[in-house]
């Protein structure tokens, strides 16, 4: 009538609960999920990036809140846009700070995408954080007008009573 239930055995296999018995104690052990986790596209603010641990060398990873960060998503306003033959540099201001970004013009699609982006536009940028000459910068691989993010911002402010339809 009475049975014993061992929770460690019950939850040690479906992938839903991690089990310490499945983790390797070998220091040279490299999990493929660890590599996959470092390639996640993380939404961050410029403040989080500026507060990140800045590695001394350019080959080390940037760590934000204890997590190795590589690819990020950032939403903000473009400023200081400078176009050159091989790249376009600009800054993104998200309200928490400014971050220098670069878009390398490797293909014609890159040039076409950057022609549409001007100072004062709100954009969504995807890119890889890099350290160059001791400073963190973002090498972008996608930049788009951030219409959906702006709509959400106005919806939130309207629902909080910050705007009325007459002020829009």
Automatic annotation (TrEMBL):
One of its GO terms (biological process) is double-strand break repair via homologous recombination. Keywords: DNA damage, DNA recombination, DNA repair, DNA replication, DNA-binding, Nucleus. Its main location: nucleus. It comes from the Eukaryota. Residues 18-33 have a biased composition (Polar residues). Residues 16-37 are annotated as: Disordered. One of its GO terms (cellular component) is site of double-strand break. GO terms for molecular function: single-stranded DNA binding. PANTHER family: REPLICATION PROTEIN A-RELATED, REPLICATION PROTEIN A2. This is OB domain-containing protein.
């Amino acid at each position: 009538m009475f049975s014993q239930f061992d929770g460690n055995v019950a939850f040690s296999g479906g992938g839903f609960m991690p089990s310490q018995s499945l983790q390797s104690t070998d220091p040279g052990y490299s999990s493929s999920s660890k590599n996959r986790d470092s390639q996640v596209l993380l939404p961050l603010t410029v403040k989080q990036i500026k507060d990140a641990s800045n590695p001394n060398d350019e080959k080390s990873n940037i760590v934000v809140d204890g997590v190795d960060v590589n690819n990020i998503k950032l939403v903000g306003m473009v400023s200081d846009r400078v176009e050159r033959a091989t790249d376009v540099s600009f800054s993104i201001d998200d309200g928490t700070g400014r971050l220098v970004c670069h878009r390398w013009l490797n293909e014609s699609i890159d040039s076409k995408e950057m022609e549409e982006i001007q100072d004062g536009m709100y954009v969504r940028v995807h890119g890889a954080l890099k350290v160059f000459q001791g400073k963190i910068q973002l090498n972008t691989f996608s930049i788009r007008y951030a219409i959906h993010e702006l709509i959400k911002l106005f919806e939130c402010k309207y629902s909080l009573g910050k705007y009325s339809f007459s002020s829009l």
